[in-house]
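quick one, two chains, predict together pls
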Amino acid sequence: MKFDVAVVGAGPAGLAAAYRLASSGFKVVVLERGREPGAKELYGGRIYAYWLDKYLPEFRKDAPVDRWVRKERVSLLTEDKALTVELAITQKEKTSFVAPLVSFVSWLSKLAQGAGAKIVTEVTVDALVKDEKGKITGVQSGSDVLQAEYVIDAEGVNRLLLERAGIVKKLEPELVAVGVKEVLKFENKKVLEERLGLDEDEGLAWALAGYPTEYLPGGGFIYTYKDSLALGVVVYLKNWEKLKTPVYDLIEKFRLHPYIAPLVKGVTLQEYGGHMTPVAGINMSPPRYYYDGLLIVGDAAGFLLHTGVLIRGVDFAIASGVLAAEAIKEARSPSAEDLAIYEKKLRESFVLQQLEKFRSADRLLSDESLFRDLALLSTEAAYRYFNIDHNQRTLFEAVREASKKTRVNMLKIMINMIRMLRSL
Amino acid sequence: MSLKYFTIEERLNANAWDVDVHRPHIRIKDPDKCRTCEKKPCTYMCPAKCYVQQGDYVVLSTEACVECGTCRVVCPHGAIEWNYPRSGMGIWYRFT
């Protein structure tokens, strides 16, 4: 049986492509190694809606949304202090939402199936199949070969297939971080809302830097699902040597921090997982996004934007999947020459424009002193400002004293603040 | 209802998976490289504690692997062979 398009991986990128192509009458098969779509997927917790309105407006009708985010919280955390900034939106805005990725992907797979795409689970693709001229002509699983006119690689960050096909080199530790995540279930949603200070069905997205990663690049995160929350830490692989605690203990240290623990006491642990995440953005992209017979989408293409606080993967994945589908629809043949239109579409869209714009974010965020300096100095300065003794300090005095105590250089931190303002 | 530390074993037990007992998807290609590896980053960076140092060696158990692939990237000696588990096998995320 020959398909027009074979998609590897039933994630947001692969399914969005399959849905679009199937809707236009293409014969599409999606190959997924998990028992069901989403079985091998893990992310932080939040999906941005703004671009989805353009690329997948169907989601507004019936996609599973646990909570619309109306509170953004950022904390700098030390062993005994936390300095938190919160943005609360009082009108009922719907610009980003929290949901388990599994639910969202399951909804998306039903949409694709409804449009006629065939989704085959429990199939592990081992390799991309090439003809003698190097054109990708299908995929291989065990001894089975499936032929397809076009192949879309949506295998995710851990891109073994692209590596085996000689398209990318093995991932370097500089390009990725590992996220470790717990899903913690509350007795009921009321308890969660009371603890986190949320109105009914209101969602919270919370990024924490400093203590969660022993002051190394990366950080902690909390996202509120319906009656559970996602809590995790993200650690850059290249910094592992400076970690004193293994990552599987690091996450528990974070959960049991005196600032966090009261929020999650009495919860039951529903699930525990880990996943790599591309931190280098387009610095980890393959040399090209298209080859003879092949298009690369989502995490495999490095389409994830992160600025320390804001992390966007799913909307980039979906947009790239949709654009790959559009490219195939417009291409006259599966030749690289014709598929170059995919890259053109990526460049004209927010996907590459935004990734280009934040290209230097990674270098700043992986600067080892950044979070350490920020967390130590700002919490200490705030403490000195608020803690009145014989001498009430001006802000400047509080910062200067904190700088002396923490040995964080004020000039350096000011330079870094300017760099942050510019590149994050 | 106190503040309880969840051991890694408790946490992994919360997960659902289908272990491929006949063909582990990760293999240490050359255990001698692990023996001479001073730092053993796999023992620090694997979220599922699949790698445990015993003496000079590293003991690998893949049953509870969460399939992140970190070990292969972080290993400085290229000593780890990593495949996707066979069809349908391995971890099965349901809530993340």
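The mean pLDDT of chain A is 96.
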